[in-house]
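Quick one, tokens below:
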């Protein structure tokens, strides 16, 4: 299984992923241009769990 964490930004996504079977760790930044994001996620094989950063702004 792959566990993937995604930090979203306006023009890019920063991704950290670990394969729990092999121990392989990957970090990459993918720009929101063309089909780069779609191609990255479509190429993932097997079981994948994706965690997406969630934040909220509050007024003081």
């Amino acid at each position: 299984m792959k566990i993937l964490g995604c930090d979203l930004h306006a023009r890019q996504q920063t991704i950290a992923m670990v394969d729990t079977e092999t121990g392989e760790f990957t970090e990459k930044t993918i720009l929101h241009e063309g089909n780069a994001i779609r191609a990255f996620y479509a190429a993932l094989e097997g079981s994948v769990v994706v965690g997406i950063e969630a934040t909220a702004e509050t007024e003081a």
